[in-house]
Amino acid sequence: MEKSDSKDQPKQVLAEYLRLHGLRKTPERFAILNAIYSIEGHFTPEVLVEKMSDEFNFRVCRATVYNNLELLVDAKLVHKHRFTEGAQYEKSFKEVSHCHLLCTGCGKVMECDNHNVQRQMETMRVKRFTVSSYSLYVYGLCTKCSTALKRKQKKILNKIDIQKNGRKKD
Amino acid sequence: MEKSDSKDQPKQVLAEYLRLHGLRKTPERFAILNAIYSIEGHFTPEVLVEKMSDEFNFRVCRATVYNNLELLVDAKLVHKHRFTEGAQYEKSFKEVSHCHLLCTGCGKVMECDNHNVQRQMETMRVKRFTVSSYSLYVYGLCTKCSTALKRKQKKILNKIDIQKNGRKKD
DNA sequence: GTCAGTGCAAACTTTTTGCAACTAC
DNA sequence: GTAGTTGCAAAAAGTTTGCACTGAC
């Protein structure tokens, strides 16, 4: 009977978190949570405010969004990333931790499931430290940037060669 | 004889990087590199500027430091981290990639060598992506914050209990 | 009724940009 | 001499803060 599915919902988790921390159940908090869980992938605080206003017709000021994002991170309902200048967030409830591929050429962020790493991380123990989550960022080049870089390097090498030969000929 | 130890020096790596990219060997670049390699652990651009001025008597403006940190990251001589607001850097030449433990309570950053993870990362292959480096951040609580949190939670639970009992008595 | 939480605007921090001056090549 | 680099100052981007007001408890 009444299998406690509902208890597994992010909303319930937030409610319980607020209760256990003696904090208030404001409409803003649940509206923010709701908006976040309607977003697939990463988002910035700015985008979240905009989306809430546009799609949910719910206006919140930035300070509130910043405050509550921090709270939701603490409640383990949201992951915080810092790929570039400015933080990016991502829902995290019942999501498998995936690693992120960051192209240092164009800045593109891709996701990648590496089961070996995941297994390893889930069983990771560290002395004098209570592990709660992890982020793995892998830097490198996407195919497009990799090709572009090779072309660019060839061009530079040609230029260096020309300069040298020019000098030699003098 | 003349074993090419010198070629392995960061300075040589930078010189070669600059040559292959058609960039200039400015004194600022080598001064910045030098200062960075005198620092153990993480530092911010601000701290680097200060250190250069104070300890090396070499004044550079921030813009130059920012430009060249980016360049050094590209040359794989420096790692860039974004633990908090504001980037932190770290020398990376011939350094073993270590994972970072980030305490979400006090913000303390600790280093941690996990050989399993290191081995795994060094052999990692991803489709359509040329891996060049990685960062592993493990979030959690240090012993001090873990203890503090437990104490705090106990206090809140007591408070909630008192409120409930108070109501019931009414 | 009280105090945590919100909105607003201003302040602050970190990073980038535009431009004149400089210098490595 | 040319064009890549630097310094400087101003602007931009992202986040935090102070304060008055509101509303969850």
Describe the structure.
The structure is a homodimer of 170-residue chains. With 170 residues, chain A is of the alpha+beta class. Chain A has a domain at 1-95: Winged helix-like DNA-binding domain superfamily/Winged helix DNA-binding domain (Arc Repressor Mutant, subunit A, Orthogonal Bundle), CATH 1.10.10. The first copy, chain A, contains 6 helices and 5 strands; from the N terminus they run H-H-H-H-E-E-E-E-H-E-H. The first copy, chain A, has helices at 10-20, 27-36, 45-55, 62-74, 115-122, 143-169; strands spanning 78-81, 88-91, 99-103, 109-112, 129-142. In chain A, a hairpin with a 5-residue loop joins strand 3 (99-103) and strand 4 (109-112). The N and C termini of chain A lie far apart (92 Å). The A-B interface holds A 19-22, 73-74, 82-83, 101, 103-104, 110, 112, 114, 116-117, 120-121, 124, 126, 128-143, 146, 153, 156-157, 159-160 and B 19-22, 73-74, 82-83, 101, 103-104, 110, 112, 114, 116-117, 120-121, 124, 126, 128-143, 146, 153, 156-157, 159-160. The structure holds a DNA duplex (25 and 25 nucleotides).
